[in-house]
Design goal:
It contains six helices and 25 strands. With about 375 residues, it is an alpha+beta fold. α1 packs antiparallel against α2. The termini are far apart. About 35% of the residues are buried.
């Protein structure tokens, strides 16, 4: 196996897949990247047995293109070590030659490296998909939906069904939901598919993180394939395959409150900045900020016996009763950080019911209030 490639392209190919590689792999080959050289291009693949990420660099027709395959073949090489070497290479053109003993010789300018690899046959075979349901949507649709919800995924491993995003395809809509039991983020997007393709799955956190890194192209399409126990995302000459979380996701619609008594319209950036400033003095124990609603005004306060207090006022249109409600500051500002809308609505029933954050498009964020002493 032998190929010539630009340093930038080789590094780009390795960085696209190396995040999946565990630093504490149970099998030596799981620390490696599978490199396959075919006449049409190079493919890089890594796996931790739960997730497989694969990226491809195609041979172009230009005579001095960024990639030239001189000899086809395959090998697995230590992924992180190889990326570290490529990052430091002195020149822009790299030649890689692999012998029959799976030893790779890397030449670049005056530099030479020899790396011991493992045979490609040792690498876990790709997962098999059967009874697949397929969905096609734009990358922008999924990227925006994940940005609006992924921050609310639970990190509590005792409730493993919450350690991912619930993804439902039903009635020509894709619904994404994430919750940790104290807050819930949900968004919907229109996607066309036959009724026989209706499905609901839980995609694990690690797959969501990898997917967010791969989703770049605003105009590009994305193909999602759902099997019995796995999901695959194909985009930008990359493929991500992940196991699904097995189990029943809780009935999230039960926690969405009924009609609100009051709606306050907030200017996203102004409220975000004010809440972040005030939360600097939120007490460690209760970790809460309080929103005080009076006529045409919100006062955000934090009070800590050990540190001091902070307060900030924002003029808003509000005509309801005087009311105060406390929230965890991190949970309160999370949607404001991840939404793009300038105008955000806060719907309230009373001081003890959950608050609901909404925007003009299909999205909602349910936030449990905190009980704090007066």
């Amino acid at each position: 196996m032998k190929f010539r490639i630009s340093k930038e392209k080789l590094l780009e190919g390795l960085q696209q897949v190396q995040n999946v590689v565990s630093s504490r792999a149970t099998l030596p080959v799981l620390s490696n990247v599978l490199i396959e050289a075919e006449s049409s291009g190079l493919r890089f693949t890594t796996t931790d047995l739960d997730i497989v990420v694969s990226g491809r660099i195609a041979v172009t027709e230009e005579p001095d293109g960024p990639l030239e395959i001189m000899e086809t073949g395959s090998v697995t090489l230590p992924a992180r070590r190889l990326a570290a070497i490529v990052r430091e290479l002195p020149a822009s053109e790299v030649t890689v030659t692999v012998d029959s003993e799976n030893t790779a010789a890397i030449r670049c300018g005056n530099s030479f490296f020899k790396i011991l690899g493992l045979p490609a046959e040792d690498f876990p075979p790709p997962p098999k998909f059967e009874d697949v349901k397929e969905f096609i949507l734009t990358q922008k649709t999924l990227r925006d939906a994940l940005k609006k919800t992924a921050y609310a995924i639970s990190t509590d491993e005792t409730r493993y069904v919450l350690n991912g995003i619930y993804c439902q395809f039903k009635e020509n809509k894709m619904t994404l939901v994430a919750t940790d039991g104290r807050r819930l983020a949900m968004t919907e997007a229109e996607v066309e598919f036959p009724e026989s393709n209706e499905a609901a799955v839980i995609v694990p956190t690690k797959a969501v993180s990898e997917l967010q890194r791969l989703l770049k192209d605003d105009q590009g399409q994305l193909v999602i394939r759902i099997g019995a126990r796995q999901i695959a995302f194909e985009l930008n000459q990359s493929l991500l395959v992940s196991k699904l979380i097995e189990g029943n996701y809780p009935n999230f619609r039960q926690v969405i409150p009924g009609a609100a008594n009051e709606r306050v319209t907030l200017e996203r950036e102004a409220f975000l900045q004010a809440a972040q400033r005030v939360s600097l003095l939120a007490p460690d124990k209760s970790n809460s900020v309080k929103l005080h609603f009076t006529k045409d005004n919100i006062e955000i306060t934090a009070n800590s016996a050990d540190i001091g207090e902070a307060r900030e006022s924002i003029a808003v249109k509000y005509n309801g009763p005087n009311m105060a409600i406390a929230f965890n500051p991190e949970y309160l500002v999370a949607p404001f950080r991840n939404l793009d809308a300038d105008e955000i609505f806060l719907d309230l029933i009373d001081e003890v019911s959950p608050g609901v954050i909404k925007i003009a498009s299909p999205f909602l964020y349910v936030l449990m209030p905190m009980r704090v002493s007066q």
